[in-house]
Specification:
Blueprint (H helix, E strand, L loop, with lengths): L1 H15 L7 E2 L2 E2 L2 E2 L45 E2 L2 E6 L2 H4 L2 E5 L1 H14 L14 E6 L3 E6 L8 E5 L3 E4 H5 L5 H13 L3 H8 L6 H8 E5 L10 E5 L7 E2 L5 E6 L4 E5 L8 E4 L8 H12 L12 H22 L8 H13 L7 H13 L3 H19 L5 H10 L14
InterPro entries: SET_dom, SET_dom_sf, SET_domain_protein
Organism: Lasiosphaeria miniovina
Keywords: Signal
Length: 420
């Protein structure tokens, strides 16, 4: 148990050091918004695969029943090698989903559905969303809060419209036309309302939409081989614009749902935004990544600030990196209560409300190592709250923070720095 806690803490430190990883731990799915390196890389058609090649005859009729069909996976509706189109118009209480993936991954998706969407569970009626889609100056369409939101309020929770195996884009080479045709047939299989939402996203063609508006996610399995790695497209989520100091955080759960949560209080009429990239990068690196991956210049308040203000921000970010490296080293004698307080202040000054869970976790553990039970409990509770917002209610570090908040003196870190 103790070793597991340290490994989990190390993963938080790694995340703080700007590393995105694919992993499934317990009941959570790690994700980040990331554009595929080339939307036109496709997979080779395997002559030996006993799968159906794509044909135009397999594009479904536009007509569909108004009543949501029962949940049932159907397909393959055409293949390129081992990657085939499968559809389930009844998935998630009739929302629907289409996947371009392997038959092994369809079995995983069936198991996820069995675990997370019991067939006898009655669908919950949709409540009015706490946002409206509206024009945002210089950004096109975006989401504006239509009521006061408080930290921890759910903004939206959506399952993917389309899942595409990562290797379908990246690992193989086949003519562009078959790949695009397979993507077109996948979109045509979506229920009409969801298809309309998908096609309304920026990009135009299905491949360009997926390249611009998808999130990395891992549906598990593969024994570390990466076979569960997919890109998931959530049309409603794509309306959230980028901000380097986002007021919303997101995670993808074991039920495949993308949950967006308010990371700080938001006034009515304010734009809701997430960060497409690591917000702990300096300004020049953030701008370069945004331009390279999405083709626009970040115009958020931080990136648009003066050179003097940007330099001060970058200096704070460098100090955060140095401080967190020291806190992660339990033998570092330079760690004091003053250092911990300074780190919390740096995060507040940088307005990193959507990326503070790892820092609060380190601060809680280190206050306990210094023998300050009261502050250890306080920051363990704050870390617990932030982990739920940023990582979801199944994250592995939640139990550790709950234990620390409940009994700091019984925790394995108690006075660990004092004893050295």
């Amino acid at each position: 148990m103790r070793a597991g806690a340290l490994i989990s803490l190390a993963s938080l430190v790694a995340a703080t050091q700007h590393q995105h990883t694919f992993q499934r731990t317990g009941q959570r799915l790690e994700s980040c918004k990331w554009r595929p390196p080339s939307p036109r890389l496709a997979c080779a058609i395997d002559e030996d695969e006993e799968q159906k090649p794509w044909t135009e005859a397999q594009v479904p009729n536009e007509e569909t029943d108004l009543e949501p069909p029962p949940s049932r996976w159907e397909g393959p509706h055409g293949c390129a090698g081992q990657y085939c189109v499968f559809a389930n118009k009844g998935f998630a209480s009739g929302r629907g989903i289409v996947a371009i993936t392997t038959t092994q991954n369809i079995q995983r998706l069936k198991q996820i559905e069995k675990d997370e969407y019991p067939p006898d569970e009655k669908p919950q009626p949709d409540s009015p969303p706490p946002y409206v889609v509206a024009a945002v100056q210089g950004k096109g369409l975006g989401l504006l809060a239509n009521k006061t939101l408080h930290r921890g309020d759910t903004i939206m929770k959506k399952t993917p419209a389309i899942l595409v195996h990562r290797a379908f884009f990246e690992s193989v080479a086949v003519a562009h036309q078959p790949q695009d045709a397979l993507l077109d047939s996948a979109v045509a299989l979506l229920p009409p309302p969801l298809r309309k939402e998908f096609l309304a996203q920026m990009g135009g063609s299905p491949s360009a939409i997926l390249a611009t508006n998808s999130f990395q996610m891992d549906i598990g399995g593969g024994g570390g081989s990466g076979d569960g790695h997919h890109y998931g497209n959530f049309p409603e989520v794509s309306r959230l614009n980028h901000d380097c100091r986002a007021n919303a955080a997101f995670h993808i759960g074991a039920d495949l749902a993308h949950t967006t949560t308010a990371a700080r209080d938001v006034d009515p009429g304010a734009e809701l935004a997430i960060s497409y990239i690591d917000p702990l990068l300096p300004r020049a690196a953030r701008q370069q990544r945004i331009r390279h991956a999405w083709g626009f210049a970040c115009g958020c308040a931080l990136c648009g600030s003066s050179h003097k203000a940007a330099d001060k921000s970058d200096a704070r970010l460098r100090e955060i990196a140095r401080t967190e490296a020291a806190l992660a080293d339990f033998t570092d004698a330079s760690v004091t209560a003053r250092v911990l307080g300074r780190l919390v202040q740096l995060y507040a000054d940088e307005r990193l409300d959507a990326s503070v869970a790892g820092a609060y976790t380190l601060v809680a553990l280190n206050y306990n190592m210094l023998g300050d039970a009261g502050r250890a409990q306080r920051y363990a509770r704050l870390a617990h709250e932030a982990l739920v917002i940023e990582k979801g209610a199944a994250h592995g570090d939640l139990a550790e923070m709950a234990e620390l908040a409940r009994s700091p003196r019984a925790h394995f870190t108690w006075r660990a720095r004092v004893r050295r």
